[in-house]
Protein: ABC transporter ATP-binding protein
Amino acid sequence: MMAATTLATQRAAPSTVASTIPSSVQTTTPSAPGRQESGNAVSLRGLAKRFGETSVFADIDADIAHGEFITLLGPSGCGKSTLLRAIAGLTSLGAGSIHIGGDDITRLPPQRRGVGMVFQHYALFPNLKVADNVAFGLRMQKVPGDERARRVDEVLRLVEMQDQAHKFPHQLSGGQCQRVALARSLVVEPKVLLMDEPLSALDARIRRHLRDQIREIQKTLGLTTLFVTHDQEEAMLMSDRVFLMHQGRILQKDTAEVLYTRPRDENAAGFMGHYCLLDAVEAAPLLGFRSQAGRVALRPEALYLSVQGRPLGGERPARVGPGVSGRVRRHRLLGNIVRYDIDCDGTSLAVDTLNRSARSLLPAGCEVTIHVDLDEVQELDA
Structure:
């Protein structure tokens, strides 16, 4: 029997991780039979879905590489969970096609699509122990008992739940239940793992731990994963790429860094950060020129404050605008960041500075000068 391998061990010795992963869940190793080395793991073409007269999503086109971690990000009601359920076969499509590993699975039932699904609320059987919950899919596949027991033990070790195999779901914490749900999806060796807001019902501390654990396991296995969330921080920390959705369409497909620093339009900028969105006329005094774009977006950390000519915060960038006068309306402590709301003749700007405990915070009414890093000005598409 394979010795238990904790994630702490994996982090300490990354070069040995591959050799310690259970053989039953090494889904993307070169020796795996039938593995497709070229092409995409998932291809979506022209997907559309309506509920009556309401369009849920439309014109969904995307290619996802083998081993990629993709996050479907967007506000509630944008269609991201319904899209994930359509890929899983739990919701019918109105139009379009889905290919997994080159195979058209659009009309296949869920159990024949080669996907694993992890839901927000676990969906564990309350009358079954942990080991039996994990083994359920293998029983449906009629996997022999000895192999079934071995695979269940291996995957429970992978998610660090081997000591809880004898317990019922009501005896577990929320984070433990979600790890059991993850193990149940992994044990059937899916080609693609689908996760629908699996962390949103957990408290912050457990959510952070499980977020890191999911990403660690996904990277170790090289398992193609689609992950749904409305949490920008979660998306930025976990993803290879983020598909930002708005009103049933994908606005932008990019790495988290590109999506945050170079949003394509106002909707993307408004959702991805605390951007200051200004029209060209409003922005001109701050920039020192009239932008050719109709709107510009400024991140709070790209703005700098001075008080009576004395810079507040760190070193200034090489290229800054001429500066405009303003007045502090209020400040908010955000851990290591202080966010100032500044009124500039009726235009509201948010400015982030490092929270240095030895320095007094600027009070409401304090007069300041604001400069912008001109290399961080984002001109938005119409």
Notes: The longest helix spans residues 204-221. Confidence is low (pLDDT under 50) at residues 1-38.
